[in-house]
Amino acid sequence: MQFFKPTAITLATGLLVACGGDSSDGPPAVRNLAEHNCNVAALQAGLPASDKLLSATLVKAGSLPLGPNTTLQDLPEFCQVMGQTSASANSLINFEIWTPLGQAWNGKLVVTGNGGYSPALSYNDMAYAMRQGYAVVGGDTGHQSSNPNAMDWGVGNPEKILDWGKRSIHAITQPSKQLIERLTSTAASRSYYYGCSTGGHQAFAQMQHYPADFDGVIAGAPGHNRTRLNVDFLHRFLANREPGSNGAVILTPAKARFITQQVVAACDGLDGVVDGVMENPRMCTPAHFDIRSLQCEAEDNEACLTTAQIEVVEAIYQGPVNPVTGEQLYPGHLPGSEAGWPSYWGSDSPVRADYWRLWAFDDPQWDWWTFDYNRDVARAEKVLGPLVDHTSADLRSFATRGAKAIVYHGWQDAVVNPVDSIHYYEQVQALHGAQTGDFMRLFMVPGMGHCSGGTGAVVFGNGGQQAANAHAGNDLLHALDAWVEQGKAPEQIVASAASNAAPRSKPLCAYPAKAVYDGRGNSSDAASYSCQ
Question: InterPro entries, alphabetically (predicted)?
């Protein structure tokens, strides 16, 4: 998508029209130029006929209703541009640009990612970044399904799968940069990316395939190992049913919650603080907690597990394995994550069954009970891997241009396994050695689930949540900007408790360091911990 680039003459004309002939007002002149250009006619000129802007609207400061149950608050006045672009003949990607006016804009850009397979824009993430002064961008990943979980839009449309899985962020970033410059007469001085889950997946696609787009990325709970992630969802379904049955689960949600309670009771104090949060669940080895210690001695009841239920737990702890080669296809889930398992073990069909049924095998009648962990994984990776999997540890192009990446992951994430993020980081370290810390930092978050939420200190600018009195020491976006602009690599980011929880703060440490309690101070205060 190519855009008309304003010349000095046209920019000057715009300033004169907007400002009554006085272009000496500094920021107010830029504000008036943006106001003047915030219309389709001004921005559309010079666009190819195949691409178009749908609207350009000045939005007053305050609130922005997005539907019957959602209203964004505390927004600056901004120009909201809606447009469409395409990455190929069979591609259509809708996007929005929100640019604060005048001094409210810090001169920088944040592009936001998506969640799951949904085309919904991450409006909370956009609002979070715009409140900090950024122009923000979001897109629909290249499909317009009304059902956020539908995947039929990819049937016979590999280009749309490619848009969703790899290139839509790149496709909307280039025109957005140009439109912001057209709107304000000023190119964004820095461009960042912010996303979690599929948004983290999109960050990995950018680092590996489009390294020149951003000066820095924030990638939460990245689902970049997409095919293997869906192997895990399938594994959970198959492990928790009688063979050939799509009915009742063996391990119930209530029993899963019970296991988590027992795990935390057994292993909470291993980090030196009994606070309901495990600093590192991998410390909770069988020497401290053995799932078989919960086996019922007589009849099944709510405070024990049957033999069949224990076997389900052990299978999910183990994770999917190739029975022919012995390869671990995806990491097993950690003790303490059990309460979250039910959300992704499926009901009468596996979660993301259509990934296999419609995308990988093109067989609407496919029976998941026939899944072969050797043959079918290889088959799916051959078909879909180039479109959706981003597992290369080679980030030389990203690193050599000075770009930075902050990756974060909740230790209690029961959707995308946190161990997979650790494995990727270690692969990057193996390739890049000591230089890894110059461009990538990984932060593991005790007590946090998928992207946000959980017990303990889980708010640090993640999931569109603004940290109180945000600065580089407690907020992801501030930390990334300080690293890019000032070279201050984050060694720790202080997280706080959710607003509805008891006050608590704790440092998140750059992996592999962890927060160690000093044994003296307030265990709910970050000042009582150091990263070691």
Answer: AB_hydrolase_fold, Tannase/feruloyl_esterase
